Amino acid sequence: MDGGRCVVGEASEPWPVLVERCFHALDHDRLEFHDSTGRCTVASAGAAAVGLGVCVLAAPEIVVGAVVVTGVVVVGFAIKEALDAYELRRSRPEVGPAAETRPVPETMPAPREPSPKQRPKPEPKGPDFPPVGPIETSERERRRRCEPIPVRHLGGNHLHNQCADKIPNNSFPGRDVFVNGKNFDALQLATRTLWEVKTDNFDTYTADLKDIVVRSQMPKMQHERELARACGFDFKVGVRSATHKVALLKQDRTLNVVVMEWC
C-alpha cells in the first residue's frame, strides 16, 4: 500500500522483524493467509487475522500456498530468493574483497565444483531463518508433496465445477487443489478435508449401468482417499443422489459420502 517504503526502510532487519513492522502496509483486501504447515494457532483465516499473517510470514521457511493474492498463488520460495539476492547486493559495497567470505561449518564436506549454470545463493545470516533442526530428505519430500496448491479446474464441466465451488467452507472456490500428485475438487482447510465430486445423473441409469459406474468409481475413490490420508487430510465424496450414495457405501462402508444438497 505504501509503494514498498516500509520494506525498504526495514530491509536491514531480520525477516520476522520486517514482517511484523510492515504488516500494516499490506493491502489486506487482496491478501489471504493459509497455514499449510498447521503450526499457527488458526487453521485458516483472512488477512484481517493479523496474528495468523505474521505467524505464516515469519516462519523459518515460507511454504507454497501460504500467501494468496486475488486468486494467484505467491510462491514463498521466490520471496526468499529475492531477499537473498537483495542481501547479497547490499553487502557488496560495504565489505571489501578480503572480508567477503562465507563461513562453512567445519563438519561439512568440501563443496563440489559448482556448475557454471548455477547461480550462487547466499546462506541465511543471523536470526533471519531460525534453525529448525535437521530434516530427513524423505520428510522434506513428503512435506513438499503434501503442500496444497490451488490450480485451475481440470476440464470444462460447468456443473461439476459449480458443485465443487459451493462446498461449504471451500477454501479455494474456483480452483482445484493439487495434493500428493492429484487434483482434488475442493479443500476445506479448517477441517483439513479434501473432496472428490461426482455429478452423475445416477437415478436415470439402468440397474446394469449403475453397477458399472459404481464399480469403476470405487477403486479411484479408494486410491484418492489413501493419497489424502498419507498427507494427513480427511477425504469426502460428494454426490447428487441418495441412491448413488447408497450404492457406493454397499461397495465400501468406510467411505465418507455426502449428498450435495447445494448442487
Automatic annotation (TrEMBL):
Domain DUF6310: 139-263
Entry-linked InterPro entries: DUF6310
Alphabetical list of Pfam families matching this protein: DUF6310 (PF19829)
Region called Disordered, residue ranges: 92-149
Biased composition (Basic and acidic residues): 114-126, 137-147
Entry's transmembrane regions: 65-83
Protein name per its UniProtKB record: DUF6310 domain-containing protein
